[in-house]
Amino acid sequence: MTVQLPDSSLALLREGYTFISSRCDRLGTDLFRTTLILRPVVCLRGAEAAEFFYGGGRFGRKAAMPRSAQHLLQDAGSVQSLQGSAHRRRKQLFLDLMTNESVERLGRAFDTEWHSARERWQDSGEVVLHDEVRRVLTATACHWAGVSADRATVSRRARELSLMIDKAGAVGPVNWYARWRRRSTEKWAGECISSIRRNGPAAASGSPAAVIAFHTDEHGNPLSAEVAAVELLNLLRPIVAVSRFMVFAAVALQQHPEWNDIVRKGQDADLDCFAQEVRRYYPFFPFVGGTARETLEWKGHTFKTGQWALFDLYGTNHDGRLWKDPESFNPARFRVWRPDPHTLVPQGAGDAAVGHRCPGEDITVDLIRRATRALAAESGISVPAQDLSIDLTRMPALPRSGFILSVGRASD
User: Fold this and answer.
1) 248, 287, 321, 334: which one has the fewest Cβ atoms less than 10 Å from its Cβ?
2) Chain segment 356-398, per-residue pLDDT in tens
3) One CATH from 3.40.50.300, 1.10.630.10, 1.20.120.1080, 1.10.3210.10 for 3-407
4) Per the entry, which co-factors are needed (predicted)?
């Protein structure tokens, strides 16, 4: 029989990332029922839950998150809101943009932008890494996507894209402000799409922004300008969100200096292990929502059509049945890890080609690797005393200081 808990809205705010896993541990189950924001919900955790939640098209994203978060992270008509053949066709658009050549091109753009930013940092003396890498990643994403953006535009869009991420879990005035700012971002993205369409496919040279601009749905119709603008933001915003992983990588290098020496040598295998452990260990998004598309049975519980469910991303990444000593940061575990789409789930589980798993994981890992290598190789940079603790009740989380760097001139 499924355990039913009383309304847990306040408990979620108090506990944050550990809300689902702590109850699963206490109850000895991977599934329990409760109420959040006056809405019944089933919470799930673990590899079996990941396979059930992401597999077979059982759960869709309609009404899967509060409107306050949906308007910031998805908005109407976006790929995440679609189901069936419409979702598969739109998702393929994004998958086609994630080729090895495209990932490499994005990485080279990041290296160039990092170098330019590094030269500016030394004039500041002290910088907050999270603020700086958000601007670096915004410039990188625009360059890669084929969107023209000067420094003023990059700074503004970096703030707006960051608000979409930072305030997705908030309610009230701060969320309203972020949604108001998003309108400005959507207007800018719509102008980019319109400019590309006016110039025609030949002038766009197959850039990611152009691929979106000239994409057609399953009926052969082009996307509306509004939906194309939303999908352009869905291309740019996740790249900016990688800034959090980069800051966590900096924290890991500071708190585990032995890995500084290892990654400085530039061994790709070690860099990959380090990046994957950053993704597993540190808090990114806490959970993901879905609604049952039909009546389902799992672990003795019946999901009625439309039933809201939350799958625990953070708790599954810290599940002691899947990971030895999960609360320790240990990149070496990935030297012997066999890739499993249902155990390492910071950006979702299952097959990205057919489900709702993020299609940009290869880009994420590559960018973390590049940032880690750059940070480990830096000279003229030191880390002053600061509060690097991470508040797991803040969703999404960050070190309290944002990671402050004291910057001098790099040695030749």
Assistant:
1) 321
2) 556 678 899 999 999 999 999 877 789 999 999 999 999 999 9
3) 1.10.630.10
4) heme
